[in-house]
Design goal:
The chain is mainly β. The protein contains 3 helices and 12 strands; from the N terminus they run βββββαββββββαβα.
C-alpha cells in the first residue's frame, strides 16, 4: 500500500520491448536504498515489482494488461517519473490509501497558474465519474491530491509549488496523459450498497 506522497522524481534510463510486455530500467537514488528483488515501487502510480537493482537503478517488468490500462506505454528513455516505496507499518499516512492499481487514464486539459499555486484541469473517464467528488481524494500519476471541482467529464486539482517542483505534474502540458486511481473506499462502499440493495430485492 502507498500513500500518494511522492518520494522522488526518477528517470527512465532504458526501455526493452518484449513480445507482450516491456522492461524498464529506472534511476531513483532514494527508492533504491535498501531495495531488494521482489520489492514494490510505485512508478507514476503503478505498483511495479523490482526485478533487479544495481547502484541507484532498478529494473521492473510491465505486463500488457498494465500497459493497456495505464500511461506507462508512452514512457521512453529520459522520461521523468514519480517514485514511491510502500508505506511501512507504523508510519504516518500522509496522503490517502493508494493501492497502485490504476483505474484509468486522463489527459491534462488546461493549466491556470497563479501567484502561489496552479489549477490543473484533467479529463475523467465516464466510468470513474461516480467515484470523484468535490474535496475528495484522487491519485494522479501516483500523487495524492484533493479534488477542487468535479465535473461530468473532468476534475480540477490545485497544485502547490512543492508539488510542481517535485513531481511530474510540474512539467506535464495539455494533451499529456496521466494515470488515475480513485479512492478505493468509494468502490467498496458502492459494492456493499449494491449487495444490500440486491438482498432487499430478494
Amino acid at each position: 500500500m502507498f500513500t500518494g506522497i511522492v518520494e522522488e522524481l526518477g528517470e527512465i534510463t532504458a526501455v526493452e520491448t518484449l513480445d507482450d510486455a516491456c522492461r524498464f530500467r529506472l534511476r531513483g537514488p532514494v527508492v533504491t536504498q535498501g531495495a531488494k528483488h521482489g520489492d514494490s515501487i510505485a512508478v507514476n502510480g503503478v505498483c511495479l515489482t523490482v526485478v533487479d537493482y544495481e547502484g541507484d537503478e532498478f529494473t521492473a517488468d510491465v505486463m500488457a494488461e498494465t500497459l493497456n490500462r495505464s500511461s506507462l506505454g508512452a514512457l521512453k528513455a529520459g522520461s521523468r517519473v514519480n517514485l514511491e516505496r510502500p508505506m511501512a507499518v507504523g508510519e504516518r499516512l500522509g496522503g490517502h490509501i493508494v493501492q497502485g492499481h490504476v483505474d484509468g487514464t486522463g489527459e491534462i486539459l488546461e493549466r491556470k497558474p497563479s501567484e502561489h499555486w496552479e489549477i490543473v484541469k484533467i479529463s475523467l473517464p465516464a466510468d470513474l465519474t461516480r467515484y470523484v467528488v468535490e474535496k475528495g481524494s484522487i491519485t494522479v500519476d501516483g500523487i495524492s491530491l484533493t479534488v477542487v471541482d468535479a465535473g461530468p467529464d473532468h476534475f480540477t486539482v490545485s497544485l502547490i509549488p512543492t508539488t510542481l517542483d517535485l513531481t511530474t505534474l510540474g512539467h506535464k502540458q495539455p494533451g499529456d496523459p496521466v494515470n488515475l486511481e480513485v479512492d478505493v473506499i468509494a468502490k467498496y462502499v458502492e459494492r456493499m450498497l449494491g449487495d444490500r440493495a440486491q438482498g432487499a430485492g430478494r
